[in-house]
Design brief:
Length: 146
């Protein structure tokens, strides 16, 4: 095994160990968020998901896989909705990929476009480590009954 493959395997094992380090399954800490190393923070009306884009998250072209970026953006919007008005479910989500990420910290910041009683509209902007916008998402959410 080459040194490169050995490092990739070590990083992948560390990701899995981090995900399995807890059985918590709640907002802010659940398997996928721990696996990808998502750090979730809140401002008054925003939620940010930040993570280090590492090689095991890359597609064969050498950039961050779009599905991982979509997951981070969906989590940012869902956590914001839960934080402000309660748990919900994604009804629809659209993503525009504007650039690629080849490493470094990615920051996905969610905000509301409109808050309704049962349906809300959110957006999320993903930025690379150098603050370049790499994706924009919009979504429609339905609040779940308590």
């Amino acid at each position: 095994m080459s040194a490169f493959n050995n490092v990739r395997e070590q990083i992948g094992r560390a990701m899995l160990d981090r995900a399995l380090s807890s059985n918590r399954h709640e907002f802010g800490s659940f398997f996928l968020s721990r696996f990808f190393g998502f750090e979730i923070t809140y401002d008054v009306d925003r939620c940010t998901v930040s993570f280090e884009a590492t090689e095991p998250m890359f597609n064969p072209q050498g950039s961050l896989h779009g599905g991982i970026l979509a997951t981070a953006m969906d989590i940012a919007m869902g956590h914001l909705l839960q934080h402000v008005s309660g748990a919900g479910t994604t009804l629809e989500m659209k993503i525009q990929y504007i650039g690629s990420v080849r490493g470094g910290v990615v920051r996905c910041e969610a905000s509301f476009l409109r808050v309704g009683r049962s349906i809300s509209f959110l957006q999320c902007i993903a930025r690379s480590h150098d603050e370049v916008v790499v994706a924009h998402a919009t979504s429609t959410w339905k609040r779940l009954r308590r």
